[in-house]
Amino acid sequence: MPGLGLPPMQPLSSGMLADTMPQALPDRAAYEDLQRRRKNIPTDVILNYNMLDKLIHGVKTFFVTTPKTILRGLSGAPDYTFSEAMQVAKVPYYLGGVFLTLSPLIGGNKPEAIRLGASVLMYLAGMSGTKALINAAYKMRYGVDLGLLYRSKSGQVENVYASSNFPRFDLLTPHHYNDMANKLGIPEGVYERDGAVRENLRYIINSSRTLKLVVANIISAIGAGYIARSDAWLNVPSAFTKLPGIWKDSRMGIGHKVQASLANISEPLIGVVRDRFNLAGGSWWQKAVILGGLGTMAASLAYIVFNGIPNKHYTVLKKDNTVDEVTPSRLPQLNMPAMPEFPYIPANWTQPFQGYWPTWGQPQQPGGWL
Amino acid sequence: MSMQLPPVQSSKPANTVQKAGPAARREILANQAILVPQAAHTAWTALNSGHGADYQMARLDDASRMLGVAGIAGLASMGVGYPGGWLPFWLGGTSWLTSMAVTPKLINAGVRLKTGVNLNQVYKASNNEIRPLFQDPNYMPLQVVPEEQRLRMMQRLGVPLNNPDRDNLLQQRLKQISVQTHTWWMLMAGMATPVLAALGCDLLEDPVKTLISNIKNWGVNTFVLPGIKGSGADAAVDAMDKAMNAALNPQTELSALSRWWKQMPKSLLKTLELDKLPESIQLHKSAEVRFDKIAEKLAHKLQDANQRSALERTIRNQLDQLEKITGPLEKLLNKDEELQKLLPEHELARFRHQLEMAQGSAKTTLEHFRELINIAKKGGKHSVLKGQLKDKMRNSTLAYVEQMFREGDVSSARRLAAGWEPLNRVMGWFRKNKFATSFAHMGDSPRSFLLKALDNHALHNRWFRRYPMLIGGFMLASTALFIGLFLGKQPAPDPSVKRGGLS
Prior knowledge:
heterodimer, A: mainly alpha, two-stranded antiparallel sheet, 12 helices, B: mainly alpha, 3-stranded antiparallel sheet
């Protein structure tokens, strides 16, 4: 990059590299990164967010970023991006939910408002819960963090795998690639191992998105509607209205208050679960909904775990310069740690003849795991 | 060894590449029609082999949401427990999806009026996909728009035609307009979808019910009735069918009677101004509270002589109307020779009896209100009057019970009032049980009469008249303001930036 004042590219030779570059910067990308950081040039960086960071990021997105984006959109900002449009496209779900709940309330029909409010909450929770579940399953099985975020040059936080046509593979580090390759079962020593990971990542992005769309949009929506339809929801608001009385009661201790509040709130919710998941007493369509929904969820998780990557042969160059054909298993690779050996038994120890009768108290030969 | 590759088999010359271009009407319609099957194919392919593309995934999103709505409607209509209960759910789901589709179109129409830009425009991509032209603000392939249309847009949007960068300037203007409109869609969709869906349900429920029952009637009348009539086995069914066809035609008096029964409480409510009670009272869950407020309002009203005479006038009008409606009906039942021949005497007697009861109970209810006027005429304090009215309204025996006592045969009167069961069953087959329903709720005490009337009034008014009109008006006004004042508005040029070129 001439703009950064870097030296022109030179033919690579190990001696020259050792002479011109310090040992701490073994590659050119790191050197360029350092230059950018020195000159305060913004770049796209991966954000390693933990749970708390993600929560704060979500709150900030909801209350700060989205209103700002809406204002930018209303003024028709010339640098408005498609990802910002996608962010604003989530607004109708929240706004519509609020209006759907408020409309009967304005008209004075409180029971209907409670029912609709419950269904809106169940819908949003079901959608986000299903997506989180599928993401967690992919993370466990393939090491792919589908919720991985990066901050772009212009300061927007976006998903690395948001698009399957243009995923930001360029931001992934060797650590990411290694982790995913191991879990995908791509053997070491394959030519362009990262390329093999990228190919499978595209498949994973597509199949995970499809699963999310099908399971969340259809199964979770129907399930939310089914659960929200119960009349047991009508008891929930009254449980909350009793809470101030409990907390004002001076005779109770703090522990007692917490316990009483939890019992008060959980009682109607348990009533909902009892009403809706009553397999024995329900009609045929209720059984079909419950079993069908849970079955579809289980099947999608089983798909994630057992489908694996499409059957593919990899040519591996071994250390003794021989070539081997490897077909990774579609089943999950359980990289369990080996059982530690007992230190007081030598590895080549053979057990002498003990006699025809079994004796106790002798250390057993350690076997492998499983 | 060198391998010989086979020649490429293709109908086209090797160097032609299909380019993006305008889409034909036929292709656009076909694209809408294949939404769900194509989405199923996308899902199947993605889950099997992992292949897929962003745009196809977006289509899958649309289709799966549609199926989700259908699933919710289907599930909701499963355990309703009364015939026709499925209708509101499917109507709600359909109007929900329709309003989701219609809201952007309405806003786009406003945008087109102001700027001449059609944001509904689609194009055919090089891979034969039909895509919205303005979906992605960073990728609007304006080369698919014909040159002539682009020039017209430039003229309309004030882009100088002599500017060498005019295509770029047009792109910028269109991007601004599309981004603004898309954001406005998203703000409006949250409000418009519930409101428009509710409005659609309210407007369509009765017509759709009528339509469905007509369709069902057509089937029964065309295929079932000739069979029954021809058999000659059930002469009573045949006779009743003819009698009902004569009597239950929407234009005839019986139907007018049932309509009058719906309208009469409304007119009383309006005269007494009970429909202006606050909504919190109208829909209060305690009947006693509502009754108390009704009595209070009544006492307040009836202290005024003008109001008393207005109520008197309403009662007289209603009695006149009742006479006008039931007179011909009575004549039909007593003197119509054809009907006399068709129906056996005991059935005619039943009809006459029901009619008398309807008249009697309606008259009794109205007479009760006359008595309230008489109580109020004596004068007195507001609180005392309120108590007297309350007592009168609560303690007056149900007109229905009075009627039964007058007849002296309580059990048969009850059976008759509930409707003759075989008749109701036959009417149920023909979906013409108007006769039974129009007599079902007659003969209430003034208390329950007023409370029921108030309930109906409040439930009817809740959604239809107030809320959607308010929100809809707000949305229309704000959309018009946004489009009129802010759409396509360019920021004032920054004076610190010096423009190049000749000046």
